Amino acid sequence: MQLTWQRDQINLLLPIALICCCLLIDVTSAQEAQQPWYENLPAVAMDYKVHIDAGKEDCYHQYVKAGATFYVSFSVVRGGDGMAGFAVRNPAGEVVKPYQWQATADYTDQVSPGGYYSVCIDNQFSRFAGKLVNIYITVVKYDAWDKYAKEIEQLQLNMQNFTATVGTVERNINDMMGYQAHSRHRESRDYALLLDNNAYIQTFSISQIVVILITCSVQVFFVRKLFEVKSSSKSRI
């Protein structure tokens, strides 16, 4: 009887243990899913093109790890007067860059406190025209190279010059990526302007051709009408 009772206890405890293990796995998976996939990367660069409807405001959120450098820039590619409002809020909800109606703008936080930054594009002053906006975001963790240097020192290798050089190269690469983003913004605006001018010239040319054809047809009709001779059906006796 005692063996049977112990066996029944084991049979009851096994499903409970399995359920607890499943719950722990689900909680761990949920916590991992909440973390961005790029959190452990030393540097991340993202380039977006978004369409902002007339009279609307759109906000985008970017996670930045504590101590990293956050940079964002925006440029209006096409639409309306070529300008929009741009604002940035830090993870504490404070407006670190207030709204300004302009064609291009950027913001840099050298040492981030960590959390989600909010980047908002405002098109509320434009009631009829939507805007195509280019957004460029970079998140760089320069302390990753310091950690790499400490790991090298543990191997008793003198890599200070190498680490400093790599850090300088990383900063220069980040600056060049920013310049390239500005160049892409200008190229996008110029290309959009080229397409608009091409469409305008084609429409204007076709309209002129249609007007000329109509004018020539009307002139030919009235000139022929002028020289038209009416024949009389009655003969004189």
Summarize model confidence as the mean pLDDT: 76
H/I helix tally: 3
Q: Any idea what the radius of gyration is?
A: 35 Å
- Architecture of the domain at 41-190 in CATH? Sandwich
Residues in β-strands, percent: 25-35%
* Largest sheet entry: 5 strands, antiparallel
General form? elongated
Low-confidence stretches: 1-7, 22-33
Structural class assignment: alpha+beta
Spatial gap, N to C terminus = 147 Å
* Residue share in helix: 40-55%
Stated plainly, the CATH topology of the domain at 41-190 is called: Jelly Rolls
How would you describe this structure to a colleague?
- This protein has a domain at 41-190: Jelly Rolls (Sandwich).
- With 237 residues, it is of the alpha+beta class.
- Strand 4 (84-89) and strand 5 form a beta hairpin.
- 47% of the residues lie in helices and 27% in strands.
- Strands 2, 4, 5, 6 and 8 form a five-stranded antiparallel β-sheet that branches. It has a four-stranded antiparallel β-sheet with strand order 1-9-3-7, with helices on one face.
- Helix 2 runs antiparallel to helix 3 (160-226).
- It is elongated.
- It contains three helices and nine strands.
- It is found in: Endomembrane system; Membrane.
Offer a few descriptive terms:
single chain, 237 residues, alpha+beta, Jelly Rolls, four-stranded antiparallel β-sheet, 3 helices, 27% strand, GOLD domain-containing protein, signal, transmembrane helix, transmembrane, GOLD_dom_sf
